[in-house]
Amino acid sequence: MSSATSTTSLPSGLDTLTTFPDVLFIPEIVFGGLVWILVASSKVPSPMVQGWVMFVSVFCFVMSTALLCLYICGAHGGSSSWVTLVSGCDEPQALFYLSAAVLEAYFTYSISVFSDNPLILTIYQENIAAVVFAFLATLMYVIHKVYSLLRWKSS
């Protein structure tokens, strides 16, 4: 009786930046940081919506940066449990970002009615950019989740 065990070698060091899906940490961090900056720089007419978007962008930015640093440092030691950890972290991040992107899009749509005021127009333009980057971050987290699950299944 033979056991078919296949292990997926996890990258460490700078190899993390050249392997897929681990290279997706970079656009996740970049898009999340842009959402964070855009929401933080806009005036806050609706603190509840903007607060949730800020929480999500900061939380996901910190989590992705921490995971990338741990991968680069080689903290995983080749353990397959890290594949489970990353795939478990991507799901809530993707759901959080989807909820934040939808709320930000709804908020941006609702303030478009008042677009004749120059201050509201500036807020509107910053929030449109935040919505675009939030949906791009969501897409990156979903792609990362799918490929992390494929890696997990093969490990």
UniProtKB/TrEMBL annotation:
A Pfam family per the record: MARVEL
Bilayer disposition of the protein: Multi-pass membrane protein
Membrane spanning residue stretches: 20-40, 52-74, 94-115, 127-147
Annotated keywords: Lipoprotein, Membrane, Transmembrane, Transmembrane helix
GO biological process: myelination
Domain MARVEL intervals: 16-153
GO molecular function: structural constituent of myelin sheath
Localization per Swiss-Prot or TrEMBL: Membrane
Protein name stated in the entry: Myelin and lymphocyte protein
Organism expressing this protein natively: Rynchops niger (Black skimmer)
Upper classification of the organism: Eukaryota, Metazoa, Chordata, Craniata, Vertebrata
